[in-house]
Amino acid sequence: MEYHSHEVVTERNVVLLEHGHASELTDYLANEVRVALVYNGIAHTVMLASPQDLEAFAIGFTLSERIVSHINDIKGVELEFTHEGVLIQVEINQRCFMELKQQRRNMAGRTGCGLCGVAQLEEAVKPVMRVDSDARFDISHLQVALGQIQDNQQHFKLTGATHAAMGLNHQGQIIAAYEDIGRHIALDKLIGAFSAHNVERPVAVLLTSRASFEMVQKAASANIQILFAMSAVTSLALELAEKSNITLIGFCRNGRATLYTHGYRLLGQHCASLAKAI
């Protein structure tokens, strides 16, 4: 079987076992494929992802992992679909490539298994990047975005297996949405899309997943100032959001939300006085 970029969902006949009865029905599975990222001809990493919007993913990953510092440092992205998965060739400028090679040599020199993991604990944490402070968002508009989620999760409605990262404008409208089986990859796709194209930049980002440390770190790299998560916030995510000057809000569901950091960006009659203290 050869993968194509539009084959995101697989249809299968299955048997439903329910209340002591068995019945046949059609189920939909989210496809996950191996995606290899290659920089200037050198293999970097292999990930599992949904085979859609992979150019946006490659750009977003390259930026959010700080392999390059600016979109102009990426000179080209080419996709090759094979029987084994998808090969993404990313061409970056020579300075960034030399820095990436040096990083790989440093890791390989300190571990017995080459690039299988992080050599030292501190290498798991990139230097803190502080985001700008000009974004403002009326918290009452969050309900607008929550009401639009279902229409922006087509693959989740079919499979129940994908996460989404969605960009919001000042009115709470979802202006861009990207899905993937991996929550990190969904966010990378969103970052790549608004970084590579001359489109409206979101004032806030809404995640259907939890806000973990890595998600906040990616948000900081992309100067995302307001991060909403429908699920929980982890302790390290909170700590990094505080240091990075990111407004972090979790458990965004059904007219409620939990504010964790930098509430000064949130507008609204009911939250303004309390948000100033956080």
TrEMBL record:
Keywords: Cytoplasm, Molybdenum cofactor biosynthesis. The active site is at residue 113. It comes from Shewanella scandinavica. Mo-bis(molybdopterin guanine dinucleotide) binds at residues 251-256. It is found in: Cytoplasm. Belongs to the FdhD family. Required for formate dehydrogenase (FDH) activity. Acts as a sulfur carrier protein that transfers sulfur from IscS to the molybdenum cofactor prior to its insertion into FDH. This is Sulfur carrier protein FdhD. The gene is fdhD. It comes from the Bacteria. Its main location: cytoplasm. NCBIfam families: fdhD_narQ (TIGR00129). The keyword Cytoplasm applies.
